């Protein structure tokens, strides 16, 4: 899991990450982001909004352990992030699939 979080931090520093619920939803629906990550502490209503956006656009949605998303990207408290770069998205998906069974697609 640490490799996933490190890659998320790199993605954020490279400017290839949209954060926040509204930014993620727009990025998924309008800009073609193919991967959305949500924090395990996300509210049920916010999670449903992200699930609906991902279903609409055909994007993957993964849930990370509570509190890890914001820390990994340097913005504590963030509950959602969308990867806007296809290369980063593929690498993170690969790392998630290699991680233990705790990170099954949502």
Describe the structure.
The protein is α+β, with helices and mostly antiparallel strands. The chain has a single domain (2-103), classed as 60s Ribosomal Protein L30, Chain: A, CATH 3.30.1330. It is 52% helix and 16% strand. It is built from five helices and four strands. The chain has helices at residues 2-13, 21-30, 44-57, 68-73, 86-98, and strands at 17-19, 35-39, 60-64, 80-83. A four-stranded mixed β-sheet has the order 1-4-2-3, sandwiched between helices. Helix 1 (2-13) runs antiparallel to helix 5. The radius of gyration is 12 Å and the shape is globular.
Question: What tags apply to this protein structure?
Answer:
106 residues; 60s Ribosomal Protein L30, Chain: A
Topology:
Layout: H1 2-13, E1 17-19, H2 21-30, E2 35-39, H3 44-57, E3 60-64, H4 68-73, E4 80-83, H5 86-98
Parallel strand pairs: 2-3
Antiparallel strand pairs: 1-4, 2-4
CATH domain class name: Alpha Beta
Coarse shape: globular
Structural category: alpha+beta
SS field, number of helical segments: 5
Query: How much of the sequence is in beta strands?
Result: 15-25%
**Structural domain tally:** 1
For the CA atoms, what is the radius of gyration? 12 Å
* CATH fold field value: 60s Ribosomal Protein L30, Chain: A
| Helix-strand pattern | HEHEHEHEH
Largest sheet descriptor? 4 strands, mixed
| Secondary structure: helix percent | 40-55%
Overall pLDDT metric: 89
Full CATH superfamily name: Ribosomal protein L30/S12
Largest sheet: spatial strand order: 1-4-2-3
> Total number of β-strand segments?
4
Catalogue the unreliable spans: none
CATH architecture: 2-Layer Sandwich
N-to-C terminal Cα separation, in Å? 16 Å
